[in-house]
Amino acid sequence: MSTIPPRRPRVEELHKAHWRKSSYSGGANDCVEIADLGAYAAVRDSKDLDLSPVIISRSALDDFLGRYTDGGTRVG
After folding, report:
1. With b meaning 16 or more CB within 10 Å and e meaning fewer, what string describes 15-50?
2. How many CB atoms lie within 10 A of CB 5?
3. Please, which residues have CB within 8 angstroms of residue 5's CB and are 6 or more apart in sequence?
4. Could you tell me the pTM of the whole model?
5. DSSP notation for 7-62
6. Cα 64 from chain centroid (whole Å)
7. What's the confidence (pLDDT) of residue 8?
8. What tens digit of pLDDT does each residue of 18-28 get?
9. Which of 21, 44, 52, 75 is the most exposed place for a label (fewest CB within 10 A)?
10. Which of 20, 21, 22, 55 has the alpha carbon at shortest distance from 40?
11. Alpha-carbon gap, residue 76 to 67, rounded angstroms
12. How far is CA 10 from CA 14, 15, 26, 51, 59, in A?
């Protein structure tokens, strides 16, 4: 079994990524956007697209979102 982590996304992949806004944003340009990059996800500020996005593993994103989407917060 390989323990080599997946390759991090390249800059050109971020430019071609399908960015999505939260349905709660109401169409305003004042929220974060997320792009699914396979083993990774990218998060960026929709107000300042010149800033570099934050790249995190999908497992870390899934864990983070799971803590806040189940009707309450979980600790640990």
Report:
1. eebebebeeeeeeeeeebbbbebeebbbebeeeeee
2. 9
3. 39
4. 0.70
5. PPPPHHHHHHS-EEE-GGGTT-S-SEEEEEETTEEEEEETT-TTSPPEEEEHHHHH
6. 11
7. 75
8. 888 877 776 66
9. 75
10. 55
11. 9
12. 7, 9, 30, 15, 19
Residue type, 24: Y
Instruction: Specify the residue for token string 């956007």.
Output: 33
User: What residue type is assigned to position 14 of the chain?
Assistant: L
Alpha-carbon gap, residue 48 to 57, rounded angstroms? 22
Q: Are 31 and 21 in contact (CB under 8 A)?
A: yes
pLDDT of residue 32: 85
